[in-house]
Amino acid sequence: MDLYRSVRAIASASGTGDGSGGIDWDAVATAAKSATDAGTLELSPDDRAGYAADVRDARERLRSVGGLDFEVPETIEVQNRHHWIDANVSAFRRVMRPVESELQVAFPNATRVINTGSMTFVLSFLGSHVLGQYDPLLLADGDASGPGDDVSASEASSGSRVEDPQHSLYFVHPNIVAAADALDVDYPRFRRWIAFHEVAHAAEFGAAPWLSEHLESRMEDGLETLTKGEFDREAFHDLDVAMTAVEGYAEMLMDRAFDAEYADLRAKLDERRRGGGPLARLARRLLGLGLKRRQYERGARFFRTVADRRGVAAAAAVWERPENLPTSAELDDPGQWLKRVDP
Predict the structure, then answer these.
(1) Fewest C-beta in 10 Å: which of 95, 160, 171, 240?
(2) What's residue 137's pLDDT?
(3) How far, CA to CA in Å, does 185 sit from each of 249, 252, 262, 272?
(4) Are 10 and 71 in contact (CB under 8 A)?
(5) CA neighbor of 168 nearest in space, from 130, 137, 209
(6) Residue 77 phi/psi, 5° resolution?
(7) Which helix (H) or strand (E) holds 77?
(8) Average pLDDT of the chain, as a whole number
(9) How does pLDDT run across 217-229, given as a tens digit for each residue?
(10) What is the pTM of this model?
(11) Which residues contact 337 (CB under 8 A, 6 or more apart)?
(12) Beta carbons of 112 and 24 less than 8 angstroms apart
């Protein structure tokens, strides 16, 4: 960790190559990594085999329990924190592109430094807390293939990454090890549970080829109106409802499919989502992570009710077409959704 280098990178933010742009993304990457301990990425043979087996077993269990047909990325990428930051700078840049030109006001240089510092904080904080990530960015462009048996450990010295043109599956190894230790739970079992959670997201996007494009279109609609100084309440409402379904279904499915005891893991991870010190709680609030937690909880209640009444396979009807997504009212009254969709 080099805080001086981080501050220097932010202070020298210059935008894109021609000096334009509301955020200097190269400076964001440099500053975020300088402010974040990369963590160790020394994987033993058991670690490598464990990650591969966890993902492979999760795929088979989730297919069986959920009644879904899907694949996982051919290569599983086990990262340190710096690799996760590198992987997500481009994703954040893509999301911010519609509004970035509007981020420059009367004092563009000062504004660029502030914006760059803000994004640095976001990526540094998340890079120290994210345990795993399923990235479905290009999933709608084609069918992914591959058994998910290959594990790649990114090399910290070179920053090299292995990319799948369809979708990606990341595990931030030092964060998983640290979280298991902090929660006082068995590391292999905790790692396996995280794998089930991320593969559950692969199951959703694999079962619904339309889902990635649906989420992106809602986000783009909302961001486009923000550039005009307006707020598209409907677009952001639709996005919130869809993400509540995504998070809630994954929570329900991973719990039903997990092949070991998980009650203690669920309780401790839920506490972790709510907890932390005062600064961590403030950061979570500023980053909207409280909203994400509410999405987990609200969506999980909906899908657990559906699964209890009609079975886990019936809950998968939500991914058959966009019209089957629950409305906000249906999320709070699953009976309405069951009556309308009749899975």
Answers:
(1) 160
(2) 60
(3) 24, 21, 10, 13
(4) no
(5) 137
(6) -105, 120
(7) strand 75-79
(8) 80
(9) 888 787 777 766 6
(10) 0.82
(11) 302, 306, 326, 327, 330
(12) yes
